[in-house]
Amino acid sequence: MERDLTVLLIEDEPVECMAITNYADTLEGIKVVAVTNSVEQALKHANDYLPDAVILDIELRKGSGNGFMFLEKLRESDIEALPYILVTTGNTSQITYDHVRDLGADFIISKHQEDYSAEAVIDFLCSMKSAIQHYAKRQGVSKELLTTETPEEIAARMRKRINTELELVGINPKMLGKKYLIDAIQILVKRGRSIRICDEIAKMYGKTEPSVERSMQNAINAAWKGADIEDLRKHYTARINSERGVPTLAEFLYYYADKIGNNI
Predict the structure, then answer these.
(1) How far is CA 117 from the centre of its chain?
(2) What is the mean pLDDT of each run of 10 residues along the chain (264 residues)?
(3) Can you tell me the distance from the alpha carbon of 81 to that of 35, in angstroms, rounded to the nearest whole number?
(4) What domains are defined for the chain?
(5) List of E strands, 15-121
(6) Could you give the angle at the alpha carbon of 137 between the alpha carbons of 136 and 141, nearest 5°?
(7) N or C: which end of the chain has fewer CB within 10 A?
(8) Count of Cβ atoms closer than 10 Å to residue 174 Cβ
């Protein structure tokens, strides 16, 4: 299986952090392994995770340190492999740009350019994935399984990814069925399809199997009734029976179990 492009995000704006990580969570083949606004913490993450790439904001006004400090200390460290450095900045000084390149930045994206967005940043890295990983391979470092994530952290990241996917197709967070859907998808990813998933969820919550199944299907039906059709087509690409017009519970759960499972 093709390895994910691993990314460390160093950014001090919470909204920007959320936008970048949420968008990355919807894509296959790329994973944000850590987020910080601290240079000291960023250096630790860089050594712990050995990310393929770093998204680096130069001016960490709401954090500690700055991008120059990170690049200088990264070069001085004994890290096994240097990551690809993508700088994102609101600074427009040519002197700053020249200096950050001298310190090892590979590419700079200005936050002032017309087409700037969190999505554009992640899409750029995705377009560079093969080149970045080929460079890492040439450095002689195997990054398979290089992660310090605990099982609990992996589970939390999976739930976040599932929640993001369900939000994209309009699953209402106020509906009880959403919680059941998240649990069901996570269980299917971990244990496969050979279990009676509605029975499992019913036991978890002390409910009856029919009530759990009904709550999940109602959440799906409500989303397909109220969501924008183009959003649904974009984010839910499995084929749907034209007569029903809505995925069955099994179709919905298996679609996301496969999608999430292939990228965790």
Answers:
(1) 16
(2) 86 94 91 93 90 95 93 88 93 92 94 92 94 71 52 84 88 93 94 90 96 96 88 84 88 91 62
(3) 19
(4) 5-138 (3.40.50.2300), 151-261 (1.10.10.10)
(5) 30-36, 53-57, 84-89, 107-110
(6) 80
(7) N
(8) 6
